[in-house]
Amino acid sequence: MKTTLAGFLVLVALAPLPLLAHHSFAAEFDSTKPVTVKGAVTKVEWTNPHIWIYIDNKDENGVVSKWECEMGSPNSLMRQGWRSDSLKQGDQVTIEGTRAKNGSNTCNARTVRLADGTRLFAGSSEGARP
Amino acid sequence: MTLKSIWGVVAFAAIFAHTAAAQWLQLQVPGTPRSPDGTPNLRAPAPRTADGKPDLSGVWRARDGRHIANLAGAEGITAPFAPWAEALYKERRENNGLDRPSGKCLPKSVPDAMTLPPYPFKIVQTPTVTVMLFEIFVSYRQIHTDGRALPRERQPSWYGYSIGRWEQDTLVVETVGITDRHWLDDSGYPHSDALKITERIRRSDFGRMDIEFTFDDPKAYTKPWTAKVAFELMPDTELLEYVCENERDAPHMVGK
């Protein structure tokens, strides 16, 4: 796994392509609302147009809130070195992203960090776009 | 070499072979000119067909994403809008592209299906028809080069009706009949049913192709305007399937 991730990170460094969504980023997400979601992955949907990951986020009192975050498309992330088993149910992750404008527990993931500190790349952020 | 490192190589080869076989993300495509070490030589001359025309066939992507978010702006120009088209464009921008057709998994077309670096398209050229297979939304367009005229009856469609002819080494393509529900780019440049797009397609060497798109729409724009997009060949790989099967954004879309 370590080798795969190292190779993956090299690929990311070599391929700084813009990764975009089929939909407008700004119509759905608020670039002024960064969000960090930490918890266990409960489900991964490896499908187009976006990979969605579902997370149980536990606060300091142990209260669980359910989050769903979108990443890039499987196609673009496969070309960057991701595979459908790069992230699995039960993995502990920290996601940094942008929260949905409608206030729901929905985010656009910019980065996904695994429990061992390895940073994966989510590749769906269009935050810089007008 | 230690036993451990040998195992590492074997394991890596096994993983790689599995991945390559699974979806042809990496394979040796026959007919690709190569350096002695096997690397594709992208500066080799453009290939030619049996009848001497440049062969545009291959997997291509836009070299950069400059034209996605502002087709005219990327050219340093302001589109010569008719008043209604300018008002509609302004509204689409103010809504942050809320109603972008692809947000509902409706197709992208010409040129917006071709300006997306993450989503390549494949050209398959024959003497009578050149086909573009678009990865995004698993769609295609046909450019007929058999001498037919543009159709008189033009039921609006997402990819329109295209004919092409060769002017020396440039394939000149005319397209009409693209539905006015289509946006020319992600920001929402509109067009009417009068739109005619002329593409001048030139493959300058094995790895490079340029297309000059001219948009002639006397209802939406006061004069024709042009965008030039550079493409690069993606050697030794294949398209992946992209069925828009799990659209979950629409319920969260709010616009402004």
Describe the structure in brief.
Chain A has 2 helices and 6 strands.
User: What are the low-pLDDT stretches of chain A, counting only 5+ consecutive residues below 50?
Assistant: 1-19, 125-130
Global structural class of chain B: alpha+beta
The ordered string of helix (H) and strand (E) elements of chain B is HEHHEEEEEEEE
Strand content of chain B: 25-35%
First and last CA, distance of chain A = 38 Å
Oligomer: heterodimer
Taking all residues together, what is the mean pLDDT of chain B? 92
Q: Which ranges of chain B are low-confidence, i.e. pLDDT below 50, for 5 or more consecutive residues?
A: 1-21
Radius of gyration of chain A: 14 Å
The amount of beta strand of chain A, in percent, is 35-45%
Q: Which structural class do you get from the secondary structure elements of chain A?
A: mainly beta
Number of helices of chain A: 2
Count the DSSP helices of chain B: 3
| Gross geometry of chain A | globular
Helix percentage of chain B: 10-25%
Report the helical percentage of chain A.
10-25%
Give me the strand/helix succession of chain A: HEEEHEEE
Overall geometry of chain B: globular
Task: Tell me the strand order in the biggest sheet of chain B.
Answer: 1-2-3-4-5-6-7-8-9
How far apart the termini of chain B lie comes to 61 Å
Strand order of the largest sheet of chain A: 1-2-3-5-4
